[in-house]
Design a protein that fits this description.
This protein has 4 helices and no strands. The protein has helices at about 5-10, 10-40, 45-85, 90-125.
Amino acid sequence: MITYSTAALLFPAISLIMLAYTNRFLALAALVRRLHAKYLEHNRRGILEGQIGNLRYRLKLLRHMQGMGILSFLTCIFCMYGIYLDHTLIAEISFGLSLLFFTISLIISFIEIQLSNKALELELSDME
């Protein structure tokens, strides 16, 4: 049986991961701005085009990561509401969905981190 404390365990985890995603977004936004300035300054196509494509895909992944994190948070709230109403089935399904959305969010985050490393490789190859 799911209790309030069981469902409440997800709240700090989801909050922390959403904070981390926001920080990733801010870092990507700063990177896009620097890349735009570099593009206007040098207008070098080769490596910049690769970086731009990588950034577009990473921003898309970040949007999905945040969306899954939000869905995880919402379904966790539904779980708490189900517990409050003493509807065990609603609580259990909501908790399961919350865990599923949280897991998907983390998997997408893993993929985005891999792409981030690839972007750093592009930067390093530009200097070699």
